[in-house]
């Protein structure tokens, strides 16, 4: 069952989110966990979260938000994080989470959903190639210190 993240989900969400950080080799601090969790729990913050619950256990998560798209003069959806427990991969949970975000986007009038992934994340890219169109854009970033 896919649903919005609830306050009672903290421990299971934390376990999944720490695995997500490990996958991308990004250390997640206690402070970072608290910050992201507070964003998700704050109805006035743009970051929202979905979880996939199976047999009373969380096995997947997705964090998303509305994002201005000035060129098109509208809000679109940005999918920040998508993670499925490794033991559940291949069971289309990621596809189901993306499908739920599509439904949310329709209800909110977001005409587009955008996300990025690592070039070497082949398993996820197989899913993304199935459900979305790869764009012509390259992503760059500047680390501001």
From TrEMBL:
- List GO molecular-function terms, semicolon-separated: N-acetyltransferase activity
Q: Which InterPro entries match?
A: Acyl_CoA_acyltransferase (IPR016181), Diverse_Substrate_AcTransf (IPR051016), GNAT_dom (IPR000182)
Q: Kindly give the Pfam families that the UniProt entry links to this protein.
A: Acetyltransf_1
Q: Which UniProt keywords apply?
A: Acyltransferase, Transferase
Annotated N-acetyltransferase domain residues: 1-145
Put simply, this protein is called N-acetyltransferase domain-containing protein
Where does this protein come from, organism-wise?
A: marine metagenome
């Amino acid at each position: 069952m896919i649903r919005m993240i609830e306050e009672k989900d903290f421990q299971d969400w934390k376990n999944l989110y720490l695995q997500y950080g490990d996958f991308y080799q990004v250390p997640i601090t206690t402070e970072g966990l608290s910050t992201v969790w507070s964003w998700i729990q704050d109805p006035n913050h743009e970051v929202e979260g979905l979880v996939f619950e199976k047999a009373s256990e969380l096995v997947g998560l997705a964090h998303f938000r509305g994002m201005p798209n000035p060129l098109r003069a509208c809000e679109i959806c940005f999918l920040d994080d998508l993670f499925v427990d490794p033991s559940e991969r291949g069971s289309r949970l990621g596809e189901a989470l993306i499908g739920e975000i599509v439904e949310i986007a329709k209800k909110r009038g977001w005409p587009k959903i955008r996300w990025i992934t690592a070039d070497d994340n082949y398993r996820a890219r197989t899913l993304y190639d199935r459900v979305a169109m790869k764009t012509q854009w390259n992503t760059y970033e500047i680390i501001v210190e």
